[in-house]
């Protein structure tokens, strides 16, 4: 069997530059698949998209579970891709699930429960940005959740959750992409160890 690929997650508040960074990272590493959560291409993802664009309403609990189900439906693909020797770079993962739903007032442990047993990434790169900076960036405010009060709570929750996990690297999202790539130091990640469970 081929040596497995690197499993990398990129997290951060809205407009923190995750998508740009993820593309640059994939180009730098080569042999990489980018996947984004929510994955809006599936039927579950299409419901999530309708919710985020305010065309349907749902309870906080129901949408939380849909976000989680959207990860579960992609678990097999992530595993197969890694085992085929390709790197998988995720633009958001279960950490987003927890910090956004908890920012709306849901219980943290309850939020974590639906993702128990998903795969744990080798490293989580947290692009930390002041929510007031993010607000000044283009297109802020287009979707549900993109308002300052909520983003501040999301940011606080990220600080708390990222402090609890043992595989997180915090990067200053105000830096240029080239610097972020240097700071990520992915050469030190050990891919000979087996994939573990998230939590
Ligand atoms: N989001 C994303 C959640 O609330 N829970 C989740 O589990 C995930 C994966 O979706 N505001 C929120 C965060 C974002 C929104 O994501 C859409 P993006 O990366 O802006 O397309
Ligand atoms: Mg967004």
Largest sheet: number of strands, sense, barrel closure = 5 strands, parallel
Instruction: Name the shape in a single word.
Output: globular
Quaternary structure annotation: single chain
The number of distinct helices, counting runs of at least 4 residues, comes to 9
The portion of residues assigned to helices is: 40-55%
The total domain count is: 1
- CATH homologous superfamily identity: P-loop containing nucleotide triphosphate hydrolases
Bound molecules: 3'-deoxy-3'-aminothymidine monophosphate, magnesium ion
User: Which range does the strand content fall in?
Assistant: 5-15%
> Whole-Å distance between the termini?
27 Å
Mind telling me which CATH architecture this is?
3-Layer(aba) Sandwich
CATH level 1 name: Alpha Beta
CATH fold-level topology: Rossmann fold
What spatial order of strands do you see in the largest sheet?
Answer: 2-3-1-4-5
- How many runs of DSSP E, i.e. beta strands? 5
Rg of Cα set? 16 Å
Q: List SSEs in N-to-C order.
A: EHEHHHEHHEHHEH
| Low confidence ranges | none
Domain Thymidylate kinase-like: 10-180
Pathway: Pyrimidine metabolism; dTTP biosynthesis
Organism: Blepharisma stoltei
GO molecular function: ATP binding; dTMP kinase activity; nucleoside diphosphate kinase activity
Write the layout of secondary structure elements.
Layout (H helix, E strand, L loop, with lengths): L6 E5 L6 H12 L2 E5 L6 H10 L7 H13 L2 H9 L3 E5 L2 H10 L4 H6 L9 E6 L2 H6 L11 H17 L3 E5 L4 H8 L15
Parallel strand pairs: 1-3, 1-4, 2-3, 4-5
The protein binds 3'-deoxy-3'-aminothymidine monophosphate and magnesium ion.
């Amino acid at each position: 069997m081929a040596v497995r690929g690197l499993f990398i997650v990129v997290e951060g508040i809205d407009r923190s530059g995750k998508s740009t960074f993820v593309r640059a990272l994939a180009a730098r590493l080569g042999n990489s698949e980018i996947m984004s959560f929510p994955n809006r291409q599936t039927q579950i993802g299409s419901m999530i998209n309708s919710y985020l664009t305010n065309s349907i309403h749902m309870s906080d609990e129901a949408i939380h579970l849909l976000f989680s189900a959207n990860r579960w439906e992609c678990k097999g693909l992530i595993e197969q891709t890694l085992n085929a020797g390709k790197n998988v770079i995720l633009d958001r993962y279960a950490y987003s699930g927890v910090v956004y739903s908890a920012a709306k007032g849901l219980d943290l442990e309850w939020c974590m429960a639906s993702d128990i047993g998903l795969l744990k990434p080798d490293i989580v790169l947290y692009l930390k940005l002041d929510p007031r900076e993010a607000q000044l960036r283009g297109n802020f405010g287009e979707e549900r959740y993109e308002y300052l009060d909520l983003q501040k709570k999301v940011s606080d929750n990220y600080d708390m959750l990222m402090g609890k996990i043992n595989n997180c690297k915090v990067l200053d999202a105000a830096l240029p992409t080239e610097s972020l790539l240097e700071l990520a130091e992915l050469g030190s990640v050990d891919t000979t160890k087996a994939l573990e469970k998230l939590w």
